[in-house]
Specification:
The structure holds two protein chains of two kinds. Chain A is of the alpha+beta class. Chain A has two domains: 9-212, P-loop containing nucleotide triphosphate hydrolases (Rossmann fold), CATH 3.40.50; 218-340, OB fold (Dihydrolipoamide Acetyltransferase, E2P) (Beta Barrel), CATH 2.40.50.100. Chain A is built from nine helices and 19 strands. In chain A, strand 8 (182-187) and strand 9 form a beta hairpin. The longest helix of chain A has 14 residues, at 115-128. The radius of gyration of chain A is 21 Å and the shape is globular. In chain B, helix 1 (3-36) packs parallel to helix 5 and helix 6 crosses helix 7. Chain B is mainly alpha-helical. The radius of gyration of chain B is 20 Å and the shape is globular. Chain B starts with a helix and ends in a 10-residue tail after the last helix. Chain B has helices at 3-36, 42-54, 57-68, 73-80, 89-113, 117-125, 130-159, 162-168, 178-187, 191-217. Chain B has ten helices and no strands. The chains are: A alpha+beta, B mainly alpha. Chains A and B meet through strand 5 of A and helix 6 and helix 7 of B.
């Protein structure tokens, strides 16, 4: 396995058993018997050639494993404080608690927390060490995880507010594209591809390497309340797109939010669609960038509203619409298809 | 219970407590090393440490006696330092310590082995050194097993006979513990007086072993990180 990564956020993809977790554990120092060389920031962590092994406590790497690995004998507050450096003040603790929104959980023990809550406490604990690098292992295949359990929205906050470089292991290409600039695709313990995220995340290659990959469309932005309706709101993304979504509970004007849309829920038309003739409230023009086979279906990548959309189509639909790269299309997405992650 | 019964009980409790406390740091250290050691020779060392469990106590006592006489390797050093051990209460402590050591190490080792090594790894990566993680993670998660081992070791020290009589003799008021006194009283035909001591040992031993059982049953409550 060899790769040189310089981005501030690296998504790590690959099928189960491809070595993603092993890679993080080697960098964090949880594995001692390693053949190879790991250098971070000019510091040699491991060099089996010279027998060098930097003790994990001196690496300043915050690791959030798949199973969170919270200390079962400590409550959430105790877990987060465990990471505090000697002499580090309440400020670091309070900041970690606030970013991960775990204040209501502090007195609870890990056994009483849900998977997503544990993951947030573990991320807060890692932040409390003021690490120079974060390593995050996605808890489960993100496709089936309950929306409120997903760590992605918190990770976006950590990225934007703390500016700590990180590795993020995920099966969700949409999350990877939103979060990271570089991606690493592993297969059978080897690097199959590494580089800028849009080059590595080609759906055909990705889904053949890892059939469990999710190609969800993920959007982060701020909410604009819809004065005309109490039940809907607009999500304005940094690319300038504006989507009509269901208004979340306790939504505030300007509040940050993250939404996901399954590629199954994106309707593609080769004829111009008008909001006046379609029930879907999000209708926009776009252009097909590429068609990629994933399993028996085709994933169409469509540039629309400044974002890359992914729509899953059957082979028959692609043939009937005569879709090809460069073709002008219209997308229709129902308000209800936008599912809020947070 | 007569005054002499009471003084025998107190002497026995005292030497058993001193013996158990003195092996505690070494026993925990040995248990920790064994729980982390995966190299070759581990089984041999474990077997060696467990030998006092299966050897006749008199055999252990005889080896200790040979080492502690003035011509023995340890005895010479102690003699030069002016320390007298043989046939004093210190000899009782030493004999019971050697005999009860494996009873402390085995449950403590098992409890420490149950602590997920990845929890220890994450503790290290959170900025704590190996000893720090041991005291903050391993010990709190394994304390039941360690306490169970401590109580077992105490019970063994409380009732030890064979090794004690060889290195400490059976001197009333100085080295005569309950086990020795029971033997002594039967020898001189005071069976009723011996039975009073038997009753005392039953009460103390029952309390210790019962506590051990309860602790061991609950030991794994925190041992896994997932509920």
């Amino acid at each position: 396995m060899a790769a040189k990564l310089e981005g501030d956020a690296v998504a790590v993809l690959g099928p189960s058993g491809s070595g993603k977790t092993s890679l993080l554990e080697v960098v964090a120092g949880l594995r001692r018997r390693v053949a190879g060389r790991v250098v971070v920031d000019g510091d040699v962590f491991v060099d089996s050639g010279s027998g060098k092994f930097l003790e994990p406590e001196r690496r300043r790497v915050g690791y959030v494993p798949q199973d969170s690995l919270l200390f079962p004998h400590l409550d959430a507050a105790g877990n987060v404080r465990f990471g505090l450096k000697k002499g580090a003040g309440e400020k670091t603790f309070a900041e970690a608690v606030s970013i991960l929104e775990i204040a209501p959980l502090l007195s609870r023990y890990p056994a009483t927390l849900s998977g997503g809550e544990r993951q947030r406490v573990a991320l807060a604990r890692a932040l409390a060490t003021e690490p120079r690098l974060l390593l995050l292992d996605e808890p489960l295949a993100a496709v089936d995880v309950e929306l409120k359990e997903r760590i992605l929205p918190y990770l976006l906050r950590v990225r934007d507010e703390k500016k700590i470089p990180f590795f993020y292991v995920t099966h969700n290409a949409g999350e990877a594209a939103l979060l990271a600039r570089e991606a690493l695709l592993l297969q059978d313990g080897r690097v199959r591809d590494a580089g800028p995220v849009h080059e590595v995340l080609r759906p055909a290659a990705l889904s053949s390497a890892d059939p469990e990959t999710s190609f969800e469309n993920v959007f982060a932005g701020v909410l604009e309340l819809d004065p005309a309706s109490g039940t809907t709101a607009y999500l304005r993304t940094s690319e300038g797109a504006r989507y009509l979504v269901l208004r979340p509970d306790r939504a505030a004007e300007g509040g940050r939010a993250v939404f996901g849309v399954s590629p199954d829920d994106v309707l593609v038309s080769t004829k111009a669609l008008e909001p006046s003739s379609v029930s879907a409230r999000n209708v926009f023009a776009g252009e097909v960038m590429g068609l990629e086979p994933i399993g028996a279906d085709t994933l169409a990548r469509i540039l629309a509203g400044g974002a890359e959309w992914r729509a899953k189509l059957t082979g028959a639909a692609v043939a009937d619409l005569d879709l090809s790269a460069g073709k002008a299309v219209w997308l229709a997405v129902k308000t209800h298809a936008f599912r809020r992650l947070r | 219970m007569s005054a002499s019964d009471l003084s025998i009980l107190l002497l026995t409790l005292r030497v058993a407590a001193v013996s158990t406390l003195s092996i505690l740091p070494f026993g925990i250290a040995a248990a920790w090393l064994l729980s982390r050691w995966k190299g070759r020779g581990k089984v041999s060392v474990e077997t060696l440490l467990s030998l006092p469990l299966v050897l006749p106590p008199t055999a252990v006592g005889l080896v200790l006696l040979e080492m502690l006489t003035r011509s023995g390797p340890l005895g010479r050093l102690l003699d030069r330092a002016g320390v007298e051990i043989l046939f004093t209460w210190k000899a009782v402590v030493l004999a019971t310590a050697v005999m009860s050591f494996p009873l402390l190490v085995r449950p403590a080792r098992a409890a420490l082995e149950e602590v997920d090594p990845r929890l220890i790894g994450i503790g290290r990566s959170l900025g704590h050194g190996a000893f720090d993680v041991f005291t903050k993670v391993s010990l709190p998660l394994a304390w039941r097993g360690i306490l169970a081992g401590t109580l077992l070791a105490f019970s063994r020290a409380f009732g030890e006979f064979g090794a004690t009589i060889l290195v400490a003799g059976n001197i009333p008021g100085r080295t005569q513990t309950l086990a020795l006194a029971i033997f002594h009283r039967t020898q001189i035909g005071q069976d009723a007086a011996a039975f009073r001591l038997v009753a005392l040992t039953v009460v103390v031993a029952f309390a210790a072993v019962w506590t051990t059982e309860v602790l061991q049953r609950r030991r794994s409550r925190f041992a896994r990180s997932e509920p």
